[in-house]
Amino acid sequence: QQQQRERWRGRPGATADGVPVAIFANVGDEEGAKQAAEQGAEGIGLLRTEFLFGGREQFPDEQEQEAAYRRLFRAFAAGQPQGKTIIARTLDAGADKPFPALEALIGSLQEANPALGLRGARIHLCHEELLRQQLRALLRAAQATGITLQIMFPMIATLEEVRRLRALTEEVLAELEGRGLRLTPRPAVGIMVETPAAALMADVLARAVDFFSIGTNDLYQYVMAVDRTNGRVASLFGRLEPAVWRAIAQVARAGQQHGRLVAVCGELAGDPLIGPLLVGLGVRELSMNPPALLAVKERLARQPLAYWQEQAQRLLQAETAAELQHMLESIA
Ligand code: PEP
Ligand code: MG
Predict the structure, then answer these.
(1) Is the minimum distance from the CB of 282 to ligand 1 under 6 angstroms?
(2) Using CA positions, which residue lies closest to atom 4 of ligand 1?
(3) What share of the chain is helix, strand, coil (3-state, %, to 5)?
(4) pLDDT digit string (tens) for 66-87?
(5) How far is the CA of 180 from the centre of ligand 2 (A)?
(6) What is the pTM of this model?
(7) What residues are paired with 43 via a beta bridge?
């Protein structure tokens, strides 16, 4: 089986009938970028920029950020010839993902209800200058290394947030372009769909973004009202829930209807049983931890798109997680 998988390392992801699906990697540091390249990732679908801000007391300034992004972009680009797209997620901080260096700047983020508080994009909008710094550093590093950068915002819940973040990104881009920056193509701007509000409003949000990337880890947490870090409840919900499957289906449909690429970058994308079925729902990019890449590519290529579509629709009929699991395991 290992040999079977090896054949996929240098090939692009596709269904048996040749429908292309970008098989990207989730990366959290320079080492991860190297590993992603070794495993044949066609791009980085989720760069968790948090790596730069953790385990330190002083917040990195713009120059330090730019240097770190350059190193990471080069580490990925040098390791493989086929893909150079990198989707950078802006800093996803909050009481659930604490960063002392950030708190030293903007005050304590401790909250009684960390998952529901000042997180992700909400912090960007309260502290715009920090986001501007990060965007400038990312854009300059992209220019210096020749990678194709895309920008993605975490924890979006409303259209107003998207509009403000896009406008701000456009301002930063225009400012740098005024000073000679040229990126071709111009960076696409997308959002993580990881709140129920974003999933329910996907048809509206689609018109305001270039792409969606579904964060199934947080989406699961918020749809099921299950704290992903609390073993007492998280373990009760170990399996794919029908409610989560329906939410993903709705987002994929909205993206397709508006001609926007829909990706999945949560853990579900890297499950070989589930990844191809996400493609059946309309997802065209799967981003996962590098060790999962070959197995997902290999399974996706076993069947044509119509088969994955049919099975994905069948799963929408499941009424319980047990039933859904049973259906999943019965799929060839
Ligand atoms: C997610 O929520 O699914 C996701 C990919 O982001 P993170 O796990 O970093 O919160
Ligand atoms: Mg998340």
Answers:
(1) no
(2) 215
(3) 50, 15, 35
(4) 999 999 999 999 977 777 999 9
(5) 34
(6) 0.97
(7) 85
